[in-house]
Design brief:
heterodimer; A: 326 residues; MetI-like fold; two-stranded antiparallel sheet; 13 helices; 2 strands; 75% helix; B: 314 residues; mainly alpha
Chain lengths: 326, 314
Amino acid sequence: MATTPLAVPDPLLTEKSRSFSVKSDWAHWSVLYGVSGLFALICAVFLISVIVSSIPAWRHSGLSLIYGKTWSQGTDSFGALPIIAGTLATTVIALIFAIPIGIGSALAIVHLLPNKAKIFASSLVELLAAVPSVVYGLWGLLVLAPWFEQTVQPALGNLTAHHFPFDPPYEGVGILLAGCVLFVMILPMIVALSRDSIAIVPKEQFEGALSVGATKWQVLRKVVLPAARTGIVGAVTLATARALGETVAVALVIGLNPLFPHTLFSTASTLASTIALQFQDATPLQVAALGALAVILMAMTAIVNWIGRRLIRRTAVKAQFVRRRS
Amino acid sequence: MIDGVPPDPMLERRELIQRVAHKTLNRRMLASRAVIGLCGLAFVVALVPLFAILFSLVQKGIHWWGIDFFTKTPLFPSLIDPNAVGGISNAIIGSLVIDGIAALFAIPIGVVTGLFLAESTSPFANALRSTAEIMTGLPSILLGIFAYQMIVVGFHEWGIKLPGIGFAGIAGSFAIGILMIPVIIKASETSLRSVPTPIREAGLALGARNGVVARKIVIPTAMPGLITAVLLALSRAVGETAPILWVIGASTINTWDPGHEMASMPLQIFQSATSPYTSLREETWGIALTLVVVVLVINLGSRLLAAWLQRERR
């Protein structure tokens, strides 16, 4: 009674029954597949709906939506080139400030501060990242803009005798201010992500380089930064995507003006801020044109983001490797 | 030097290196100190905006806080009474309702999808992971357009007729919820993955099904991480302006009905900041301070709560 004849296979040991007990909890898996399928469906509908909303505009203007040079809602002429130029200009200004300062701060947090201060500094950076973007916009509009108008812009203008790139009129708002606000917004992102990739460079490499007589900066430049390069580039790419798509903060400080920015003080407009500010009294065709801007913006940020994620993931894999080895 | 024996090239090279290293030591140390100083300076520069913003917020915002500010609806300043601004109770209620409903549907979808990504190795899961990552980085204004197109206007292409419901708080919840889902997915996947495999296997070895292991072992173990994930997503959602900009209308009355036009704190900031009335522009600081305090309390609270739960467990 107690012994089972060997001829009968043990049900727990056969491949099929094991896969039954582990894999075929069908209620569990159907819930998981159902809910994540729902998420996939939402994403698909999202993509389709944004593209569909822009169809009338593509019918109306064709590809001149991308390379056309005039954007005028009144006359229904939709050419997004100046707006794309404004978007790129503000993003580039933000990156020029944010890359050196962000990487410098990340190096300072990882390699200069004592351990206790590190945690404190990191939480300060995360605090900066948590502030809602509309608050940055508000600060830019009500604090920075008057200061720019009265102090910074005339001072910069004096440098070039009020010629390019610091031409009057000094209005405060414009691409330089928008770039500065964006700089403040993307900085925490660059600091946090590049801090992570700098922190995973093995300590042995750092100490090894120091021990053969290199100075701290030589070690940072020749050992740490090259090792963390992928992660830092990834951080910068993600920050670029954020800067390209930032909406309300830029909308408040760019001084919406759909013309090519000619100087650093020109008012201009970005893709996202145009969508935000022109939606209100738009006719259906104009809404479609704004939808087309959204499609352009989506394509730009998705590509930049995808590259950034790829780079970041490469760092993450490396981090696992390092952790396993030590 | 011994006659007849050629000089050791290695030794010569080492001496050369030492000589050069010694000769350049001062220069290199100077450069190193300078650059390290610059790094420290960069760090200080990075913190300046934080303190400048917090300083402005507190200095210009705190005096708006009072009973009336939190309990009255806004008034409309006019040339006769340019200082009438009223309170922001409608915006507070609106934010609560909109973000509450958003969280209500975003949390289950986000956490369950996160569980799926943590447990499954199918190509579908990998594709979904990339989708979620790209969704987190997309500009939030796109979700505003999505909500406008789907909920406010409705979908009328290809023979599909989905009637729109007009401007309503629920359209804002829709946009904000979809914004939250990928953030929750990413963070909850990370914390669910960090549950040690031996614990899962122990459950499976006792004969529990996958679903039971997930419900009774994996999710409770990962709970601190899940709470942080949800609250961080919520703290991001509360401050989002772009998705709700053109979908919730802008009501000036107190309403708890999400089918109705509503107000919201970030939207109120955006609108008042561009107002021609100085009094409204100044009041914006009060709203912004409220919003920042809410966001930071959720943000810091979630971290402290997670740390506390982690400690309780040990």
